[in-house]
Specification:
The chain is an alpha+beta fold and 262 residues long. The chain contains eleven helices and seven strands. It has helices spanning 3-13, 24-41, 47-54, 58-70, 87-96, 103-115, 145-150, 156-163, 187-200, 240-244, 247-261; strands spanning 74-76, 83-85, 119-125, 130-134, 203-206, 213-221, 227-236. GO terms for molecular function: DNA binding; DNA-binding transcription factor activity.
Length: 262
């Protein structure tokens, strides 16, 4: 592939019209090879080392590295000595790895489930998303994980994650999408609610995710205060007050889970 041809293909990688030219798949494959080479070589690998490893022309390697850096999949080290994996790779890894919960934590959750007639669920947090780690089979969540992550503003566990962020615009797309007539779509009102969630260490949703669902969630934090998980309790929207009464029990459960999950 000539340098000119690769450059045209590189520009086409990000096209939004959904059309692929005959050369673009090869450019995508080459970019993935570069990404894999950085992952295998580890922090500090140089462009020359990548080119030598792949048998790829230096000019081609530099162009692909620049593309991957621009999109956040690779980062240049501060001293410019080489490259390492970037923050967007963390998102891919988090999505690919299934959450695991230790036996002791599952026993704590099972004990709580036996004492209430609501759904009890454990969620893990990544930097950008929520992951359903342990679901209540008898009373499952009202929607699946992908819906929660596309509507963090409409679910209790999503609001806990948003409350940790200085800039919620990195996780949300405005205007906010309304799932029901009660879904919060005002940015200013959401910001105020997130301040309250941060102060109270408690998030709720009633009829915001689905019209007939309600949920309360409390954070599970590490010894240093980092948000690592959430215990959530779900029920019907007309059981809102009954759920609120369970908050002390949820907090106790979160405290027991903290040393097991952190």
């Amino acid at each position: 592939m000539s340098p000119g041809g690769l450059e045209r293909s590189d520009r086409g990688i990000g096209r939004a019209d959904g059309a692929l030219s005959g050369r673009q798949p090869k450019a995508v494959q080459s970019a993935l090879l570069v990404l894999e080479a950085v992952a295998l070589a580890g922090t500090g690998v140089t462009a020359k080392e990548i080119a030598d490893r792949l048998g790829m022309p230096s000019a081609t390697t530099y162009r692909l590295l620049n593309l991957l850096v621009a999109d956040g999949y690779i980062v240049r080290l501060p001293d410019l000595s080489g490259f390492s994996l970037g923050p967007r790779m963390g998102v891919l890894i988090d999505a690919a790895v299934s959450p695991t919960v230790c036996t002791a934590a599952r026993e704590v959750l099972a004990e709580l489930r036996l004492s209430v007639r609501f759904g009890v669920h454990l969620f893990y947090f990544t930097n950008t998303s929520v992951r359903l780690a342990d679901s209540d089979d008898e009373y499952p969540p009202p929607v699946d994980e992908s819906v929660l992550n596309h509507h963090l503003h409409a679910c209790a566990v999503g609001k806990l994650l948003l409350a940790e962020k200085r800039d919620i615009d990195t996780l949300l797309t405005f205007p906010l999408h309304s799932l029901t007539g009660r879904t919060l779509t005002s940015r200013s009102v959401l910001v105020q609610q997130l301040h309250e969630i941060r102060d109270q260490e408690l998030a709720t949703q009633v009829g915001e995710l689905t019209e007939d669902s309600a949920c309360v969630a409390v954070p599970v934090r590490s010894a240093t205060g980092a948000l690592v998980a959430a215990v959530a309790m779900s029920a019907r929207a007309d059981q809102e007050q009954l759920l609120i009464r369970q908050v002390p029990v949820l907090r106790e459960c979160a405290a027991r889970l903290s040393p097991l999950l952190a």
